[in-house]
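Below is a filled-in request sheet from our internal design queue. Each sheet records the structural input a requester submitted and the sequence that came back. We keep these sheets so that new team members can see what a complete request looks like end to end.

REQUESTER: design group, bay 2
PRIORITY: normal
MODE: inverse folding
CHAIN LENGTH: 69
BACKBONE (tokenized):
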């Protein structure tokens, strides 16, 4: 009976540790994804402002990003 109790306790400690690692990695991935989305939004806003004030430059930027320089 004591052996079963110790086995369950060790299993619980290992499970909690693995869950913390798993959710930590999940949080890291979500954080990186949020950063990428934010940077894409900022770049899009800069492109829209550039397109509004300097359409020729915006066209050159678009061609450069598309790879048709």
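RETURNED SEQUENCE:
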């Amino acid at each position: 009976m004591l052996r079963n109790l110790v086995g369950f306790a060790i299993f619980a400690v290992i499970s909690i540790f693995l869950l913390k690692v798993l959710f930590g990695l999940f949080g890291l991935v979500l954080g990186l994804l949020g950063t990428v989305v934010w940077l894409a939004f900022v770049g899009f806003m800069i492109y829209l402002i550039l397109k509004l004030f300097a359409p020729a430059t915006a066209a050159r930027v678009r061609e450069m990003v598309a790879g048709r320089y």
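SHEET NOTES:
- The radius of gyration is 25 Å.
- The mean pLDDT is 93.
FILED BY: M.R.
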